[in-house]
Design goal:
Elements (H helix, E strand, L loop, with lengths): L1 H5 L8 H4 L17 H20 L2 H16 L17 H6 L2 H16 L9
Helix pairs in contact: 3-4
């Protein structure tokens, strides 16, 4: 009842009504290979948690899945040694250890040259 009384006084605009020239959202899913370090950690996680996975249980499965997702993001998230002090910036080592960052590094270089604007969401 309150909504019907307030409706004539409220201005509600939809994005499709305001930005008519906006192109539709494009989404592309790109599969990326894990680096050797990531593959090793991934296998260790599965081996360590195999008995727990064999018994079942949703909470155990959820925990293992989160660990595997972390491994796919970057191996340094597991307390692995970080970039060595001998590297001038350490950025090269950070990128080299993660398949996602390797792809992102290549992709962003190309997009910047072409003048694209990017917005990156990360978990």
């Amino acid at each position: 009842m309150l909504h019907t009384q307030l409706e004539p006084h409220l201005l509600r605009r939809m994005k499709k009504d305001v930005l008519r020239g906006m192109p539709p959202k494009q989404e592309q899913i790109v599969r990326v290979e894990l680096t050797a370090k990531q593959r090793g950690i991934y296998k260790q996680l599965l081996a360590r948690h195999f008995p727990m996975l064999a018994r079942g249980g949703i909470s155990a499965l959820a925990n293992v899945v989160m660990q595997l997702r972390k491994c796919c993001a970057h191996p340094y998230l597991f307390g692995e040694e970080g970039p060595s002090a001998s590297a001038s910036d350490g950025t090269e080592q950070l990128v080299a250890c993660s398949g996602k960052l390797q792809l992102l590094d290549t992709l962003m270089g190309r997009l910047i040259v072409r003048g694209h604007r990017t917005l990156i969401y990360s978990q």
